[in-house]
Amino acid sequence: MATSTCKALAKLEAWKPEDVPPFPAVALKALNLMAGTDTSLLELCNLIRTDPAFSTEVLRIANSPLVTFPKSITNILQASMVLGFRRLRSVVITVGLRSYLSSPFTPLLHACWRHSLACAMIAERIASITSHDKDFAYTAGILHDIGRIAMAVTSPEIYSQVAIHGADQPRAMLDTERALYGMDHCQAGCVLVKTWQLPAEFFEIIDDHHNGKPRSDGVGSIVAVSCMLADSLGFAAVPYRMPGSYPEILHAFGAGLPGFPAQREELASDITRSIELIESA
User: Fold this and answer.
1) How many Cα atoms occupy the beta-carbon half-sphere of 177 within 13 Å?
2) Which among 57, 88, 119, 248 could disulfide-bond with 141, CB atoms 3.0 to 4.6 Å apart, if both were Cys?
3) Cα torsion for 181, 182, 184, 190, to the nearest 10°?
4) pLDDT (tens digit, 9 = 90+) per residue, 58-69?
5) pTM, to two decimals
């Protein structure tokens, strides 16, 4: 690893956030429409309709079994009425992430995609139980690892070394990233929040998601535990030699989560089916 590390460090001295491929413009603009007003719903519909390929992807998911609407959804305005503003925005962000990772869709990027989706789906479940905004929790879960994804997109060969090297625990992985990149993926994500002018709400969530004691008890705490649960269910972005135990993570969140399966296999199966529905849409 030593020789590879030296080569990587030399290559990454010039790494700058502005060199990272931009996130799809429609998704970035959707992220900045935080309010669920009638005006913002119309704005969101108009944004989606400016990109025919994006519109097609949104309609595919809107017509998938994930939505379970009895009739075919044939246009974006209809999708907005069926899904509502916040859910439609979550779908747009999901499509945006898939578009961002689409070429080339390496095994590493596929693992990052599945981890982000699993985290988002778990965060949505927890938020529903804890009376937080479930659609915002889903969106935060989708974006929590954007720094890692940007690293993997801009330098896939180098980040593959990070994945191959592995770590015992997620926080140990941050040390490897800092050695290779001069920053870890949480720090990189925070830089991108500023560079891409994302809403400030995402800054602390991204910065905190590997913190054992998040700074807030809100959605940031939900995303942090969702990330750990995703790893424990087999949806880790990179392999860990000592992943946290599913029952221990549930217990650490509080008195457990009512409505969450006691056995990890049941939840893992549910998440797998949902991811496969999105991937096949």
Assistant:
1) 22
2) 119
3) -110
4) 998 888 887 777
5) 0.88
